[in-house]
Predict the structure.
Amino acid sequence: MDAPTVPDLVLFVEDNPDFRESAASLLEVHGYEVALACDGLEALEILNQNSRKPDLIVSDIAMPRMNGYDFFTAVREKLNLRDIPFIFLTAMDQDVQIRQGWLMGADQYVVKPFKPEDFILVLNNRLKRSREITEHVHRSMEDKIDKIRHDLVQVVSHELRTPLTYVKGGFDLLMEELMAQKQLLQDTPGIEEYFRLIQLGTSRLNRLADQTVTMTDISS
């Protein structure tokens, strides 16, 4: 059974209580979970006190105590919050505010008053785009990790095989010399067993190096 889908969480920051509550109701009707703040300071408190990050922030600009610009700057300064999509709300005749927001790096603008269906469409599209970017980043990171792992195994395997090749070559020559020394074999009981164990250990290490490379190639 699939796990239940967790609703997207929207942090909605607006100093007008009636507009704030109306927007919250609209978002909840469309399946969003909503956190509300009356200004930037309260919004920062919510972000700092909750372990779950919002999936999207919507903020008015003109607010008491901390306006939308300062709130946006504070969010972008926090490493764990800077990737949250941020949408500014502004009045229809505030072109200066819109330009300022774009210059600061806002993801989107919504002009008040807005049609509910247009507002929801903007949020849906912004969240969809954010998820696509996140998935692309994750895939890129996984590809890089796989390449690093593969390269590391190849290097380790090579560094392991090289001395083993020397050991095995020298060991084989030594064994040939030993087998020619019949008297030494008779005078040193157990020496053949010692050499057999060394040979067995060397062979096992060679197989381990081969298997490591093979498993890495299969999983990549």
